[in-house]
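A common beginner's mistake is to predict each chain separately and then try to dock the pieces by hand. The better habit, illustrated here, is to supply every component at once so that their relative placement is modeled jointly.
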Amino acid sequence: MKVRVAVRLKPAILDPQGKAVHRSLQQLGYSEVESVRIGKLIELEVSASDPEQVRMRIEELSRKLLTNPLMETFDIELEDDGRDHD
Amino acid sequence: MNWKMTVETTTETISRWGVVIFPGSNCDKDALDAVGRICGQEARPIWHRECSLDGLDAVILPGGFSYGDYLRAGAIARFAPVMEEIVAFAGRGGLVIGICNGFQTLTEVGLLPGALMRNVGLRFICSEVYIRVERTDTPFTRRFRPGQVMKIPIAHNEGNFFLPSGPLRELEDNGQVVFRYCDQNGEVTPESNPNGSLNNIAGIVNRGGNVLGMMPHPERRCDPLLGRPDGVDLFRSMIDHLAGR
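With all components supplied together, the output reads:
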């Protein structure tokens, strides 16, 4: 099963990287872009079939290693929920 | 520290230091040299897989790029086998100092509050800065004068100290801020803040006062050959403390 963990900086945290990209976009004429925040996308291949179980384990490892809860939040997306769709 | 007192009976014993080496550490030799050759103490490297700190009086987590700084600086080093021992060692009151990458690792493992984020200017900064000594009653700073200004090198990409406002106030109220970036006259100004750190914070201690983390590199300012040896008094403070002086 493929799992994606999207890691984002908390809203209160300054994101100088996003700011720099925003400035650059404005210089390129994309004035409609109002803000840019940059995060990370982490893809994991997981050998398990129970999506509930997978979600629990991924939440745990995201808190433990993939993110720093002080400054980051994360969302988990399971690509294949392991169930049959008719 | 109580632990220490029961072991030491004489004041002239040479203290025993360990310098942790993770894959990617690169300031370990400087730290060993500062404590060993310059300060005349017994200093040995500790491989990151070691599981015993027996017989050590103080531990240094040196600068560098442990595990390539992948994911976040210090995030992977924090799970190295030796870290469990360091947490226990700190819990017994042992002296621990994390410099640069070592500071980042100490925050990741939770021995120190806060996080070191990307520098506000988005550039790796390698330069000399001034820091002001805010506390002289810690084991790390007792040889300094209150408000003393040190000239000291920094070399980092993630040195921007962050803590949410509530815990930051607590940190300040507890007097846990030991060093602040300042100008050469000791004034703490926005211009003298190299990386965007909140409240110009360059170094902090834990509540117990026996764990210090700092971004600047005192070990690079210990040999007079390299300029004013402002950093050596930090290690000598620790040696005094360990000797019960």
